[in-house]
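Example 304.
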Amino acid sequence: MSIRFDGRVAIVTGAGAGLGRSHALGLAERGAKVVVVDRGGAVDGSGGSAYAAERVVEEIRDAGGEAFASALDVTDFAAVTAMAQDVLARWGRIDILVNNAGILRDRTFAKMEMEDFRKVLDVHLMGSVHCTKAVWETMRRQNYGRIVFTSSSSGLYGNFGQSNYGAAKAALVGLMNVLHLEGRKHDIRVNTLAPTAATRMTEQLMSPQALQLLRPESITPGVLYLVSEVAPSRTILCAGAGVFAQTVITETEGVYLDEAERTPEGVAAHFAAISDTSNESELTEAFHQTDKFVRMAAQHKGID
Ligand code: NAD
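Predicted structure in complex with nicotinamide-adenine-dinucleotide:
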């Protein structure tokens, strides 16, 4: 099986550097027309320059691909909407959106300024919401769309000093879960990437040996699969250093406590069984949990 993107139109945000650049080059190399979105600027989101996006567009064109640059800020919904209209006017469709733009403003929660918390949520979460909203109707109309959100192990598992970033990155998983359900009828598949790569975002945090192994290019094949015609949906794909894994959110079977035991002490007494992961399962819709609880309670009460 060969994965190609001929005739497909892709938007990649934060594509002027690091992971986004690698994804944009990878898509273009396999035939996609690519919109390289990047406002430039520093890791903390300060400053800005059109140069970052333009340079990657040049790289794509030099390799024989088709691309254009947009130096918009993903927090600006009007600009994002105008860009999507521009893409439709030029190329007639939008098949792929890779939400990748991101910044860091790390502090312990004790020292965190609300402005830095909001700014990080704004770029990662609302930036992804804006870009997705701007292409959603087009993808519904086309009955085809592939969307990737970029999460992080910080959001999935926690990382000291990243309450703002972790909250934003975990929120993207919630957004994926819902959009997967809402997009299914129109073959819009929505997935999440949790990458680990050597970029300017991480170069201070890792040893030279680790940085050597964690090249952004080792992650891009996973993204290309997630936005391909054979993509899964509602998958959290973790990738780094050539390793690919999947994060799955599961729930333990649970324990029914009858009225006599339904006290804080009862929950404490049964907590080992409540949290027993030997019988966990993956629930793929919120109501599956309600159904399970009601079924378990009804069984205990002898109700059909
Ligand atoms: P990077 O700093 O090299 O790239 C991020 C790009 O996003 C930059 O080019 C930047 O200019 C752009 N950008 C930032 N804010 C923007 C905005 N408001 N509008 C438009 N563009 C904007 O960092 P990276 O490591 O390549 O990160 C890419 C994504 O991967 C981010 O979402 C990041 O949180 C995520 N991530 C990275 C790692 C890692 O190990 N590098 C780990 C987990 C998650």
